[in-house]
Each structure stands twice: as structure tokens, then as C-alpha cells.
Design goal:
The protein is an all-alpha fold and about 170 residues long. The chain has helices at about 5-80, 85-100, 110-170.
């Protein structure tokens, strides 16, 4: 078998087959790489973003709970009619929790505005309670003043009556 017929064509066909095989295997390996490895990196990035959004949603739920508790405490102050130190301390703690949890990309600006509103709302309620107390004090002082004026008028009448009786007795 020293002389094989069409050996040149066979060698050429084998080289073409070998090159086709290498190209096909490369394409298959490239497709598997692009189908599995690159989407895995993208999926990892997307999973991280989803996790960040879930953390922000959880923080938003905590913010809402702190806001509702703060509103309840403010309403409790209104029902009491005066600023109770324990309720005020709990209110300040809840407002500080709202301030801490109000950060984030998704809800940060809105939470900041809500937090500022809750601070102003709390301050206005405290001022209202103080003003109501002052108004009651003013009413009490007005009543006391009118009683004092009546006593003064009565004392002046008694004094006039005494003067008149003493003037009549001297003549």
C-alpha cells in the first residue's frame, strides 16, 4: 500500500473535516459560554439590584410603622390635653427611627418630606396643647379678675355705707 490513489484529495478532505470540526466545536463552546456564563453575571447583578429594592421596601415598611406609631402618640398627647414626658420621649424615639430609616434611592426624598411634616405636625400639636393650657389660664384669670372686681365693688359699697353712717353719726 505504498501508493494510495487520491491521497492528496483524501488529505485535503481530512484537513477540511478537521477545520470544520474545530470551527463547529468552537461555535458550540462559544454558544454555551454566552448562554450560561454571561447571563449568570447579568443575573447576579440583577439579583443584587432586586435585593437592594427589597431592602428599601422593608425599610419603607419600617418607616411607615414608625410614622403610624408617631401619629398615634401625637393623638394621645392631644387626648391627654398636656405634654406627658413619657409620651414625648417615645414620640422623639419614633421620629428619630423615622429619620434613620428615611434614606434610600427609591423613597428617600418622599420620606424626608414626610419626616419633616411629622416633625412640624408634632411641634404644632405641642404648641397647641401649650396654647390651650394658656387659654385655660387666661380664662381662669379673667374669672378671678371678675370675682376680684365684684369683691372690690362690694368693699367700696361697704366703705361708702360705713362713711355715710359715720358721717351721719358725727352731726
Amino acid at each position: 500500500m505504498k501508493n494510495i490513489l487520491n491521497s492528496k484529495e483524501r488529505n485535503y478532505a481530512f484537513a477540511v473535516y478537521l477545520i470544520s470540526f474545530v470551527i463547529t466545536v468552537t461555535i458550540i463552546i462559544g454558544a454555551v459560554y454566552f448562554n450560561s456564563l454571561i447571563p449568570n453575571a447579568e443575573n447576579a447583578h440583577l439579583r443584587k439590584r432586586i435585593s437592594d429594592f427589597e431592602n428599601q421596601i422593608y425599610a419603607q415598611q419600617q418607616f411607615i410603622q414608625a410614622m403610624e406609631v408617631s401619629k398615634t402618640l401625637i393623638d394621645s398627647l392631644q387626648e391627654l390635653g398636656y405634654v406627658h414626658p413619657l409620651i414625648e420621649r417615645n414620640l422623639n424615639e419614633n421620629l428619630s427611627n423615622m429619620d434613620i430609616q428615611g434614606e434610600g434611592e427609591l423613597y428617600g426624598v418622599i420620606n424626608r418630606d414626610i419626616f419633616n411634616f411629622m416633625i412640624e405636625y408634632s411641634d404644632l400639636h405641642k404648641k397647641l396643647l401649650v396654647l390651650n393650657k394658656d387659654l385655660q389660664d387666661i380664662e381662669n384669670l379673667k374669672n378671678e379678675l371678675s370675682r376680684t372686681k365684684l369683691q372690690l365693688e362690694e368693699a367700696n359699697r361697704s366703705l361708702d355705707a360705713y362713711r355715710n353712717s359715720s358721717n351721719l353719726g358725727l352731726k
